[in-house]
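pls read this stuff:
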Amino acid sequence: LEKMTDLVAVWEVALSDGVHKIEFEHGTTSGKRVVYVDGKEEIRREWMFKLVGKETFTVGATKTKAAINIDAVSGFAYEYTLEINGKSLKKYLENRLKTTNTWILNLGGTDYRIVLEKDTMDVWCNGQKMETAGEFVEDGTETHFTVADHSCCIKAVSSGKRKEGIIHTLIVDNTEIPEAVE
């Protein structure tokens, strides 16, 4: 297997089903374009006469739309930008901070990454969408699920402040888990 000699860009993208690595090779002499997602080749084009353009593909179990834009900056210099769901990576990640909560925890020596999608109330753990049971409680809602025989619950409680909205808290075996910053 040839080593990635024309690797020009690498991005790490945190989605609900995990953190994905996107790598892009661009051979400006051969016109080659190769996109790898998590080390797996997704797109390979040889002898592209047009060196600028766009490559579109999907990422992860959720088949999230992604695109790499190739733009000429000057002479033989190129700029590569990644878009996720039609937004620049920066805008996508800023929006994701508002629409999801992420917790990283270790149970019995294994690391778990738990993600709550606030709009759908879907819960993901290490890339798998979890089976959950929701219930209304006195001060809000509770979403129950199990991770490695540990009882987990995401409590959703109003902050009482409009700007803050609803506060989501993960509780595992009666212990509150601090939210992770990705």
User: Anything to note?
Assistant: The radius of gyration is 20 Å. The chain has two domains: 7-85, 94-177. The chain has one helix and 17 strands.
